[in-house]
């Protein structure tokens, strides 16, 4: 077999090449995918004085992490009924497909429904499933759900979220796993060890946000309770031993470059460890987190990685393959997508 050339064809439109590169998104929050245009539609449904596109766009502007939380609240408080969740699910899949995303694993916060809306989640799950099925049929991008608990709400609340996910999974096989987000400093992963073991026993896959805003000890804790993937893992760079373990075990990392900059968890793009992680042999995947909130979708993260961090197109293909390999898809679907990535562009 002829050896592939890794030299760039001067005729290649790199942005278009990256757009069409088959890839998966593994760290994306459903509630954080609402575009200003969709927010206007939600506002027309619920607000006495609906937002204009200009006033809606203003809600996405902020100066710091506290401002981000306020922006997130201003946007998501317009998610009222199940039909709103159906709308944002369908729109999310449409946007993903336009970026060349063939599969996504998306976080849903049952806590927002339980604790803010004071209601049961079943009608909302039915709604997002309607949106998912319609979106998958029309655009071809598949979606699995990861049910996220807010760690600083404590273990009782997390138990309710995880057990509901396990209860619903037989009816909705698209519910594939669980995770913990929220304030790492107020909810060490070790507190959730028994709940993670219970979720695993129930057949759920395990993820955890870790090392985004605190040190590498948070990542160690996530690994020690069985997390199969780690979201952010920004502070792993501060612990050479941890880097070695992550490389040896090939634990996938859900990297979110622009998110880390916009939240202030990383000072600037030049200090971000993405390239260091890749060169150290870590299982790196690129993700967008909350695209409209951070001003960068997955395609733009791929463009950023290629342009700012000097990844070759062959290395970009490797990142795309990592995203498929690290997914929770069944083996046959995973192999089919890996073949698409392998055969792309040659």
Automatic annotation (TrEMBL):
It is an enzyme of class 3 (hydrolase). Residues 22-343 form the Adenosine deaminase domain. One of its GO terms (molecular function) is hydrolase activity, acting on carbon-nitrogen (but not peptide) bonds, in cyclic amidines. The keyword Hydrolase applies. It comes from the Bacteria. Keywords: Hydrolase, Metal-binding, Zinc. InterPro entries: A_deaminase_dom (IPR001365), Ado/ade_deaminase (IPR006330), Metal_Hydrolase (IPR032466). Gene3D superfamilies: Metal-dependent hydrolases. Its cofactor is Zn(2+). The keyword Metal-binding applies. Its EC number is 3.5.4.4. NCBIfam families: aden_deam. Belongs to the metallo-dependent hydrolases superfamily. Adenosine and AMP deaminases family. This is Adenosine deaminase. It comes from Edaphobacter paludis. The gene is add.
